[in-house]
Design goal:
The protein has helices at 2-20, 49-74, 89-98, 112-117, 122-129, 161-175, 193-204, 224-227, 250-265, 295-305, 307-317, 323-346; strands at 24-28, 33-35, 44-48, 104-106, 181-186, 209-215, 218-219, 222-223, 242-246, 271-276, 366-369, 376-379. α2 (49-74) runs antiparallel to α11 (307-317) and α6 packs parallel to α7 (193-204). It is built from 12 helices and 12 strands. With 381 residues, the chain is an alpha/beta fold. The longest helix has 26 residues, at 49-74. The chain has a 6-stranded mixed beta sheet with strand order 2-9-10-6-5-4, with helices on both faces. Strands 1-3 form a two-stranded antiparallel sheet. Helices cover 43% and strands 14% of the residues. Keywords: Carbohydrate metabolism, Glucose metabolism, Magnesium, Metal-binding, Mitochondrion, Oxidoreductase, Phosphoprotein, Pyruvate, Thiamine pyrophosphate, Transit peptide. It is an enzyme of class 1 (oxidoreductase). This is Pyruvate dehydrogenase E1 component subunit alpha.
Length: 381
């Protein structure tokens, strides 16, 4: 029949066009600024078509997920703290592709992107944001406290995740399993005393730890120039070698992370990375984000160095993908986000009986005192 013929023809066309794409290409990437290092990561990166499509899909998923969270927040469906990651997608995706899933990662409270790259699903993340039973932390963690295997979560206290990450790196060294820990913090946390204490211990004990400062230019509403006497965050490990790179270029981040991971695995101790990036939203949803910077500044970053547009342009100009194909990914991603949002708004909230569960791991059930001495709650691990 005509229909079968047309369908057959369509399959042939798509098969032919796929065969015509460039399977891989080499791109020039910006040189890193180095501290206490003889040489840095390579100045070229190879990208295969498959990797490109994968990076594009993941970054687009994070972007759409955060925009949907923004929408649900404004509808008062998501409440409380909510720090969005849009604009910084190349950091999460670049780091993740430079290490293994069996390596460890810990970050601050802008954690939705990492929860996804570490194996969480959009559905679990959205349901956690709305505090529902199907959330990744059973609806008890919310925006800042999501965890997966080898991902020690978002942490709500500024800078507190850095010493914890060094502890994970100490465990890696102690177990001798050749794994490393990536320890992330922002430019706002970079002046915390506990970070310098951690540098010292990590260096003394040669811990396999990559300290990464995601410098998005503002700590809450304070620009880095107003907050730090030295904004060369990659040099502030002093005796620890460091790299500063373009955090808006996923390939740049990937190559630098591979370089840093190799440094740690070879027993040379910790290394510092500073990713120069930018957030499009305010610090959190309660910050409109335009009182301390202009709308024009945000617009300029969007138009000149957006991580997703940059990857898309590279792929299209090297005939690694077609516009239609990327549009198709966009449609699929949008649908995935819509389905997740639907689930996150209809899934039930956890019942009160679950309130005290999981206080301890693998312990017999116990009683927990309620808000007054005569109410007793039950805790099951």
């Amino acid at each position: 029949s005509v229909e079968e013929f047309l369908n057959g023809a369509r399959v042939v066309v798509s098969a032919r066009t796929y065969a015509d794409f460039t399977p891989q290409a080499t791109f020039d990437i910006k040189k890193c600024d180095l501290h206490k290092l003889e040489e840095g990561p390579p100045l070229q990166a190879v990208l295969t078509r498959e990797e490109g499509l994968q990076y594009y899909r993941t970054m687009q998923t994070i972007r759409r997920m955060e925009l949907k969270a923004d929408q649900l927040y404004k509808q008062k469906i998501i409440r409380g703290f909510c720090h969005l990651y849009d604009g910084q997608e190349a950091c999460a995706v670049g780091i993740e592709t430079g290490i293994n899933l069996s390596d460890h990662l810990i970050t601050a409270y802008r954690a939705h992107g990492y929860t996804l790259t570490r194996g969480g699903t959009v559905r679990e993340i959205m349901a956690e944001l709305t505090g529902r039973r199907g959330g990744i932390a059973k609806g008890k963690g919310g925006s800042m406290h999501m965890y997966t295997k080898h991902f020690y979560g978002g942490n709500g206290i500024v800078g507190a995740q850095v010493p914890l990450g060094a502890g994970v790196a100490l465990a890696c060294k102690y177990l001798g399993n050749n794994e490393i820990c990536v320890c992330l913090y922002g430019d706002g946390a970079a002046n915390q005393g506990q970070i310098f204490e951690t540098y010292n211990m990590a260096s003394l004990w040669k811990l396999p730890c990559i300290f990464i400062c995601e410098n998005n230019k503002y700590g809450m509403g304070t620009s880095v120039e107003r907050a730090a006497a030295s904004t060369d965050y990659y040099k502030r490990g002093d005796f620890i070698p460091g790299l500063r790179l373009d955090g808006m270029d996923v390939l740049c981040v990937r190559e630098a992370t591979k370089f840093a991971a190799e440094h740690c695995r070879s027993g040379k101790g910790p290394i510092l990375m500073e990713l120069q990036t930018y957030r499009y939203h305010g610090h959190s949803m309660s910050d409109p984000g335009v009182s301390y910077r202009t709308r024009e500044e945000i617009q300029e970053v969007r138009s000149k160095s957006d991580p997703i547009s940059m990857l898309k342009d590279r792929m299209l100009s090297n005939n690694m993908a077609s516009v239609e194909e990327l549009k198709e990914i966009d449609v699929e991603v949008r649908k995935e986000i819509e389905d997740a949002a639907q689930f996150a708004t209809t899934d039930p909230e956890p019942p009160l009986d679950d309130l005290c569960n999981h206080i301890f791991y693998n312990d017999p059930p116990m009683e927990v005192r309620g808000t007054n001495p005569w109410t007793k709650l039950k805790s099951v691990s």
